[in-house]
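Reminder to self: tokens first, then the designed residues, so the page reads top to bottom the way the pipeline ran.
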């Protein structure tokens, strides 16, 4: 007697097939694995609906173009695969990833132009970058001495797997008793961390986030739009580490949890050490916007 596959832990789309997440595999010779030669994007499903799928798709196709990778599919075809992954899994809240890898050139060739690019996707249960206690009390963010890969070497606007700087920085931060890490550029300005953009409400009450040297996060874009809608002043410019340390409020933005409060930087309290009013307002608005049909697209389960 045949049993149906167990899709409850998630579903992947690999080589044209939908498989349970635990059975998904890629060839070991794919340059996506051997050389981090890939791009990807992550969109979320919350309460049965995609959040800002169009914005993620737009960024994914732009990332593909920057890295000269071809998904071999239209945006509508990619969206259909993502929806099918979620539908099969039955997940109401999900972390949904789309990937294009370089694939591999014919044996003997080292010419990336000859590689056959590969498209993969998967849907798994929603991923939070911060746990419940951290979301309630705020994170301890460590400013790392590890420098972020220069934007002139790997374009951070194309979402990529060049994470060794972020991972080494995170390990150092965890060793130091922090919860997570932010890296700096060569000039000493903070840029981003493993899976998130960073913001502060500075001593003058203005929201500041780095303009350059970062992934243009869809959540970052949402924060910029929320600030405009709420009448909160926001500047896109370089953010020195000392301005972050002296800020009234600090927060992270990510598809892995939205707006996440930071209440300590390098172990020192930000402001009075409690989650501040601007962060609270942005968290509330972020989740409210999940019910706004401008941004939310129901999954047809
Ligand atoms: N920066 C980096 C390096 C990331 O990997 C991510 C997301 O994974 C972000 C920023 C935040 O982007 P988004 O808000 O689109 O999730």
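Designed residues (301 positions):
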């Amino acid at each position: 007697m045949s049993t149906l596959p167990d899709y409850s832990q998630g579903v992947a789309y690999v080589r044209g097939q939908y498989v349970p997440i635990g059975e998904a595999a890629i060839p070991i010779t794919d340059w996506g694995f051997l050389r981090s030669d890939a791009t990807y994007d992550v969109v979320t499903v919350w309460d049965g609906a995609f959040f800002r799928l169009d914005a993620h798709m737009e960024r994914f196709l732009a990332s593909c173009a920057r890295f000269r990778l071809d998904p071999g599919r239209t945006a509508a075809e990619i969206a259909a695969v993502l929806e099918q992954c979620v539908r099969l899994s039955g997940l109401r809240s999900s972390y949904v990833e789309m990937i294009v890898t370089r694939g591999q050139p014919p044996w003997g060739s080292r010419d990336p132009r000859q590689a056959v690019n590969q498209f993969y996707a998967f849907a798994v249960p929603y991923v939070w970058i911060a746990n419940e206690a951290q979301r309630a009390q705020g994170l301890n963010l460590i400013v790392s001495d590890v420098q972020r890969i220069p934007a002139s070497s790997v374009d951070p606007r194309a979402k990529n797997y060049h994470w060794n700087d972020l991972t080494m920085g995170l390990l150092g931060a965890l060793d130091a008793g922090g919860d997570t890490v932010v890296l700096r550029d060569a000039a000493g300005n903070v840029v981003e961390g493993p899976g998130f953009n960073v913001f502060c409400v500075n001593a003058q009450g203005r929201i500041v986030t780095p303009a350059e040297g970062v992934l243009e996060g869809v959540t970052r874009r949402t924060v910029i739009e929320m600030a405009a809608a709420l009448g909160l002043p926001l500047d896109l410019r370089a953010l020195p580490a000392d301005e972050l340390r002296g800020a009234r409020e600090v927060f992270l933005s990510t598809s892995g949890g939205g707006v996440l409060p930071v209440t300590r930087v390098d172990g020192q309290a930000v402001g009075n050490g409690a989650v501040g009013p601007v962060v609270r307002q942005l968290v509330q608005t972020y989740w409210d916007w999940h019910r706004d049909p401008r941004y939310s697209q129901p999954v047809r389960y």
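The helical segments are 31-34, 53-66, 75-89, 132-137, 164-175, 218-230, 241-245, 277-288.
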